[in-house]
Amino acid sequence: MTPSQKLARARHCFQAWLNAQPEEDSPETIQIRPEETKVEWSETVFICDGFYRGRRFRTDSASAIWFTEEHELKIHDADGACVATLTSAEMEAQFAAAQPQTDTAQTEPMRRAA
Questions:
Q1: Count of alpha carbons within 13 Å of 68, Cβ hemisphere only?
Q2: CA–CA distance, 12 with 35 (Å, rounded to integer)
Q3: Is the pLDDT of residue 53 over 90?
Q4: How far apart are the C-alpha atoms of 68 and 10, rounded to whole Å?
Q5: 14-41: b or e for each residue (b if 16 or more CB lie within 10 Å)?
Q6: What residue ranges do the domains of the chain occupy?
Q7: Where is the composition biased (Low complexity) (predicted)?
């Protein structure tokens, strides 16, 4: 998996976590499609001691850091307490479950030009 694919997976998992959080000021009858974002968030490069460590995602009520070396996404609440930690395997499973299932089996062999 390329670094850009790993970053896309981390973004997806943070967005999915944000979408799963209940909103205090909205009635529970409102349904939002999974592909819609409920919260705007920003992304910055995370550098510690002069070395690239990953990416930081922030909203008004939460933040997350995707650590590239550890292959983890750690999500924190507004007070800074860690509320969720997703390992590489957990992120991969969540990302794979959200992707549309396609049938890759071919009934006829591919033909090539002569």
A1: 18
A2: 10
A3: yes
A4: 10
A5: bbbbbeeeeeeeeeeeeeeeeeeeeeeb
A6: 3-20+41-98
A7: 95-107
Is-contact 61 78, C-beta < 8 A? Answer: yes
The answer, yes or no, to whether residue 64 has pLDDT greater than 70, is yes
DSSP the chain: --HHHHHHHHHHHHHHHHHHSPPTTS-TT----TTS-SS--EEEEEEETTEEEEEEEE-SSEEEEEETTTTEEEEEETTS-EEEEE-HHHHHHHHHHHSPP-----SSPPP---
Structure tokens at 79: 């007070």
Amino acid in the structure at residue 69? E
What is the pTM (predicted TM-score) of this model?
0.71
Distance in angstroms (rounded) separating the CA atoms of residues 9 and 93: 10
Token pair recorded at residue 84: 């969720």
The whole-angstrom separation of Cα 24 and Cα 76 is 18
Residue 39 φ then ψ, to 5°: -135, 135
Joined together, the tokens standing for residue 12 give: 């997806």
